[in-house]
Design goal:
The chain is α+β, with helices and mostly antiparallel strands. 29% of the residues lie in helices and 24% in strands. It has a 5-stranded antiparallel β-sheet.
Length: 139
């Protein structure tokens, strides 16, 4: 159980959502550790490659660094590690008018680095839908 805050964003199908997310997070957490939600074993090595991780499924975790990943693995959510992990859910829900799909970011609290990360991700997707016309408006 993570608890905390769920931030639901709406994104276009043609936007590489995971790439956008990893680029934004890596800007703030250069030693991030990535884990697919379905993985049983904990990956403890930081993503040092220039390549972005490729999640196997629609849900994954991004930890601030190796220490944060170890803390979550050993203790789960604690007050000390609450904002050191971002849980990403690439949803299947759609907005009726636009066809945009849901993307949920789950974090401990929207403060500090986490606020900046979530705001940057949200701005990236908001920019991608600016000027999007609803079907009724497309004439």
């Amino acid at each position: 159980m993570i608890g905390g805050v769920d931030v639901v964003l709406w994104v276009r199908d043609d936007i590489p959502a995971t790439d956008v997310i990893f680029r934004c997070v890596r800007h703030h957490w250069p030693k991030l550790v990535f884990q697919d939600a379905e993985e049983d074993s904990m990956p403890y090595s930081a993503q040092s490659s220039q390549w972005l991780p490729r999640p196997a499924g629609p849900e994954f975790f991004i930890y601030r660094d190796e220490e944060a990943a170890r803390s979550w693995d050993a203790q789960g959510a604690t007050p000390d590690n609450a904002n050191t992990m971002l849980y990403v859910i690439l949803g299947k829900r759609r907005q009726a008018k636009t066809g945009l799909k849901s993307l949920t970011l789950v974090c401990g609290d929207l403060t500090g680095d986490m606020r900046r990360i979530v705001d940057e991700i949200a701005a990236s997707f908001r920019d991608s839908v600016e000027g999007l016309r609803y079907p009724a408006e497309a004439a």
